[in-house]
């Protein structure tokens, strides 16, 4: 989890309790939860968009890999000396 151990997390929580009143702390937690939810939503949308674009690219690559139909060579004219 972002390289934060239990001791660091505990220290952060203690600092939050010391620095903020309980009402402020509750509002802070609600706001942080709301922001985290929005970020998760944006991340999911971004991942879906990238997957959709990559799918389109691979579809076009497959279309380009198909052998193109061979047209018959045009008749050659003979050169007469």
Blueprint (SSEs and pairs):
Elements: H1 6-19, H2 22-65
Please tell me about this protein's structure:
The model has no long low-confidence stretch (mean pLDDT 83). The termini are far apart. It contains two helices and no strands. With 81 residues, the chain is mainly alpha-helical. Helix content is 72%, strand content 0%. It is rod-shaped, with a radius of gyration of 31 Å.
User: Number of DSSP strands?
Assistant: 0
Strand composition percent: under 5%
What is the alpha-carbon Rg in Å?
A: 31 Å
Overall pLDDT: 83
Structural class: mainly alpha
H/E element sequence: HH
Q: Name the shape in a single word.
A: rod-shaped
State the end-to-end CA separation.
85 Å
As residue ranges, the low-confidence spans are none
**Helix fraction bin:** over 70%
Largest sheet: none
Number of helices, counting only DSSP H or I runs of 4 residues or more: 2
Features:
81 residues; mainly alpha; rod-shaped
Please sum up the structure shown.
With 81 residues, the protein is mainly alpha-helical.
């Amino acid at each position: 989890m972002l390289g934060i151990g239990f001791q660091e997390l505990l220290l952060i929580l203690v600092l939050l309790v010391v620095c903020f009143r309980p009402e402020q702390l509750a509002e802070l937690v609600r706001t942080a939860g709301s922001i985290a939810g929005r970020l998760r939503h944006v991340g999911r949308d971004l991942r879906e968009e990238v997957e959709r674009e990559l799918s389109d690219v691979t579809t076009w690559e497959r279309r380009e890999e198909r052998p193109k139909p061979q047209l018959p060579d045009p008749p050659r004219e003979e050169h007469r000396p």
